[in-house]
């Protein structure tokens, strides 16, 4: 069970109209949001959407091209070095040295964070216990499983007990069980007042966040708690269709005037009706698929998933980007 954040009022990360340009390419296109102390805030988006670029700016590793922001009370533009002392950062590559042993990695990061000797021993013991590596402290990091590396990297990132933790795709490439155990650790940290900012492209992980920002092509296209996103951005009915040859069936369903959009989902597909009433669209789907010779297993309304919301938001954004200007529309 997810506990409530330790605080819901103190803002510890805030950005306004943040941008990052690489030449003529605008990787982050004027985003604004705020994150509270103890909150688990997620960035959901496809690869290349601008998630990692945003995190690197917030960590003081990249200088913004425009906009403003504060992290842990420090200005993004002028106080990047001070920000680095108040945060923990874990990249998707885990930031570990494979040729060092588990213990040597912990000692290395203890030195970087300038932990006093007494504190260093205490924190090393905590990391070894948390990561389940007490009996493998002399093992080379290169031989560890993905889940063990992940927990070790997290331990190294929070050795100095920072109030804000940035996790960039931290569960990429690890098995589902390790992913779940990792999120249990995130919950524990959040329960002690640590603010956790995490990027992900896993839909199921997004459900674990207190609030979620959907980022696409450098723009923040939706922001709110996962449950709220599913109700606010999915007013239309969502219909689950199970039938043979779903890829071919999708082409039939997409042509129906009662259907706004359709997408493959698992072994079937999800269709978004044009209205809140699923009846007309469901009936049209059944009729069209039967007429086209498809064997139908199920056509029924379901509660929208975050993936439904994500697909709908992306397709709406793409349609808006390719639509002609209002004055030339017919």
Walk me through this protein's architecture.
The protein has 11 helices and 14 strands. With about 325 residues, it is α/β, with parallel strands linked by helices. It has 2 domains: about 10-225, Rossmann fold (3-Layer(aba) Sandwich); about 235-305, Alpha-Beta Plaits (2-Layer Sandwich), CATH 3.30.70. The strands form 3 sheets. It has a 6-stranded mixed β-sheet with strand order 6-7-8-3-9-10, sandwiched between helices. The protein has a 4-stranded antiparallel β-sheet with strand order 2-1-4-5. Helix 4 (about 115-130) packs antiparallel against helix 5. The longest helix is centred in the last third of the chain and has 17 residues, at about 305-320. It is globular and about 75 Å long.
List its traits.
330 residues, single chain, six-stranded mixed beta sheet, Rossmann fold, Alpha-Beta Plaits, alpha/beta, disordered N terminus, 2 domains
Q: How many helical stretches?
A: 11
How much of the sequence is in beta strands? 25-35%
Largest sheet: 6 strands, mixed
CATH class of the largest domain: Alpha Beta
Give the class from helix and strand content and strand pairing.
alpha/beta
CA-to-CA gap between the ends? 53 Å
Q: What CATH architecture of the largest domain would you give?
A: 3-Layer(aba) Sandwich
- Overall helicity: 25-40%
Q: Taking all residues together, what is the mean pLDDT?
A: 89
- The total strand number stands at 14
Strand order of the largest sheet: 6-7-8-3-9-10
The total tally of domains equals: 2
